[in-house]
Amino acid sequence: MDSVNSLLEGFGTAMSPLNLLWAAVGVLLGTAIGVLPGIGPAMAVALLLPVTYGLDPTGAFIMFAGIYYGGMFGGSTTSILLNTPGESAAVVAAIEGNPMARSGRGSQALAAAAIGHFTGGVVGTIALVALAPAVAALAVDIGAPDYFVIMLLAFIAVTSVLGSSRVRGFASLLIGLTIGLVGLDQMTGQQRLTFGSLQLSDGIDVVIVAVGLFAIGEALWVAAHLRRSSQKAIPVGRPWLGRGELRRSWKPWLRGPAIGFPFGAIPAGGAEIPTFLSYVTEKRLSKHPDEFGKGAIEGVAGPESAASASAAGTVGTMLTLGLPTTATAAVMLAAFQQYGIQPGPLLFERETELVWGLIASLFIGMVLLLVLNLPLAPVWAKLLRIPRPYLYAGILFFAAVGAYAIGGEAIDLVVLLVIGLIGLVMRRYGLPVLPAVIGVILGPSAELQLRRALQLSDGSLTGLVNTPFSITVYALIALILCWPLVRKLPLPARWRQRAGTSAR
């Protein structure tokens, strides 16, 4: 009850005219910047830190929250329309959203994403208000073996459901894990796969990999086939979701927060893991699994809802523990420290007005995001009417600008082109792109947690299965791997006879 009263007081703070203005500015800026490949919400918040020096802390963090959610939706917009993820959390949206856009259903994909962000954000923020202390306690108790098995589950789940074969899925994952090795060993400081280049010592940024594999690979693939195929104008389609699309979307919208919020609250990959797992879940539960890969709306609705809910979980852990679980949260933590405020268990007591005003602004930001972006869905979808040579030339330009903006090094452009060529080869031989991206994102973290767990157990493999949580997840992984083999086993004669009887 105290949380409800505090939240109502927070709404009083957040709904002042000035703070409403900062929330609207944050949502608009976040959406606009999220559309640019490579410049996600973390960089947007970092770039705008100096601008907020003259603002009071409450107004500054309300604007940052708007940038966070707006940046996530902006990244989904280009991911759906142009197959160019604006940030790593928007990678999954391209799998089903881009085929929908190419078939003239871009407006529906954007509407499903906008409503998914709204639903996931609202449910996730309600969970933040109700469950923040419990989630924080759970995050403290999870150890290295548990983190490792969570990431292993993400690897297995994604490679098992994507592509025409598991072999191609694991080959793609291996490519991603290899790219993730580039840089300094996190525990020994030894250089790996840097070829003597100091610029590669920090590794390859995941956004460069995602943009290279998706945007550059796609642009090169289209360029290679442009003269062989006649270009057809892609219809924009009607701007609203039909009854059938709503019927297929509402359950994924509600399932997404159940996956997204817990993963956002623990330092295990931010919004990437829950969006991948949400996609896998929707494919398993869908009544139309044959449509996945061709434009299934569930594959947009569920992951986008999970991504937005994970952002609420991230904010909750940052506020209650002072633990940043994503790059954006790390930048926001730096912003707190800039104002002389230290997030943690005492923050709710010392800065009550700021914290509950910030949480209330998350609800307001969700409403603003929905109101601003639903009417704009058909406008964004008209990007697809641009002639393909001009469209993909623009994609290459913005992809190059985004990659250069990340590190300010010319070598980033070379790396972007090389990874784009790898993406072209993967398309040529039917390798799914997503396992490679998840390998880059989670590979280094999985390696670090694996080595920590083995160090704690003096090199014994039993150190990887010494908690009930890890044992449960390993059993789930075994089920995922063995289920296709079990399904192919011939049934005993009496089982076949019973099945035939029940069918009659």
Automatic annotation (TrEMBL):
One Pfam family linked to the record: TctA
Transmembrane segments: 20-49, 109-135, 147-163, 170-187, 207-224, 354-377, 389-422, 466-486
Keyword field contains Nucleotide-binding: no
Keyword entries, A-Z: Membrane, Transmembrane, Transmembrane helix
Keyword Coiled coil set for record: no
Residues annotated as domain DUF112: 20-437
InterPro entries recorded: DUF112_TM
Classification via PANTHER family: TRICARBOXYLIC TRANSPORT PROTEIN (PTHR35342)
Protein name per Swiss-Prot or TrEMBL: Tripartite tricarboxylate transporter TctA
Species assigned in the record: Streptomyces oceani
